[in-house]
Write a structure and sequence with these properties.
Radius of gyration: 19 Å
Order of helices and strands: HHHHHHHHHHHHH
Number of strands: 0
Number of domains: 2
CATH architecture of the largest domain: Orthogonal Bundle
Length: about 300
């Protein structure tokens, strides 16, 4: 294993920003915003809208930094992650750890003082689930890592909902279920594309341990589960016909890509499926908000 040495003189604010996984956190905040908007019939109070999402984003970013810290030795082995700041030694371990603690404590303080304790504790639970349980243990323990660990990544809409309402309600759990069902087919598509890198790093992702065919079957099964889960907001009365139409169209698109990945894959199909899954989730949650306020 390559010994990574740090040179803190080469660190920049961009390295610390990169460790926060901003694109992932932005998608999380989008779903948190949707949870907030759906929790109330009118507009979300401005202080909760700003401070709630700021606190959630800071704690999520702290979890991302911890992920960089724990995975720094395997990151250097994978093309997708080899240029990360810790893997390349642009940020040293001590600075990254202090940074994670600082933004995590700041985020928790904001949530506890200016939002509400329930949202704060749920956010902390999400942090522990992702940064400690998933990254520190599950990721290396089982090929079902992304399924079990996906619960923490599915939390943002519940966090946003609880920030506004101070409670856990059935409709918020439906939003959580949608992301929970979305996570495996989303991530397994990427894992197929990066199969050789995961094998080299020793991470027991499903395509490595059980092969691509089994993984593709799992993707189709979970996409069907996701399709059914995405209909629940309409069935529960949380959303109307506009959202139902969007869910059916977007879900059909996801099923199409899953079927192509199984039956007629090309060199780019796995990444195309992965990219579509991101677009799917973003558009699905935007449709929830549009339906909520306009219909």
């Amino acid at each position: 294993m390559t010994d990574i040495t740090s040179n803190s003189m080469t660190s920049s604010w961009r390295d610390f920003y990169e460790m926060c996984k901003p694109r992932v956190v932005m998608l999380m905040i989008l779903t948190s915003l949707v949870g907030m908007f759906l929790a109330v019939p009118g507009m979300v109070p401005l202080d909760i809208l700003i401070l709630g999402n700021l606190g959630i984003a800071l704690v999520a970013s702290a979890g991302a930094v911890v992920n960089h810290v724990i995975d720094r030795k395997i990151d250097v082995l994978m093309k997708r992650t080899h240029n990360r700041p810790l893997a390349q030694g642009r940020v040293d371990l001590r600075h990254a750890t202090v940074f994670a603690i600082a933004i995590g404590v700041l985020g928790m303080t904001i949530l506890m003082v200016w939002v509400n304790p329930l949202c704060a504790w749920l956010t902390l639970g999400s942090f522990v689930g992702y940064a400690i349980i998933y990254t520190g243990y599950l990721k290396h323990a089982t090929p079902q890592n992304i399924v079990i660990g996906g619960l923490s990544g599915a939390m943002p809409p519940l966090l946003g909902w609880s920030a506004v309402s101070g409670s856990i309600e059935a409709d918020a759990l439906i939003l959580l279920l949608i992301i929970f069902a979305w996570t495996p087919p989303h991530f397994w598509a990427l894992a197929i594309h990066r199969k050789e890198e995961y094998a080299k790093s020793g991470v027991p992702m499903l395509p490595v341990t059980h092969g691509e065919h089994v993984t593709k079957v799992h993707i189709i099964v979970y996409t069907i589960i996701l399709f059914m889960a995405s209909i629940l907001p309409f069935i529960s009365g949380m959303s109307g016909i506009l959202y139902l139409g969007a869910a059916v169209i977007l879900g059909s698109g996801f099923l199409y890509w899953s079927a192509v990945l199984m039956l007629k894959p090309t060199a780019t199909t796995a990444m195309d499926t992965f990219r579509y899954s991101i677009l799917y989730l973003a558009l699905l949650f935007v449709a929830l908000v549009i339906d909520h306020y306009l219909f």
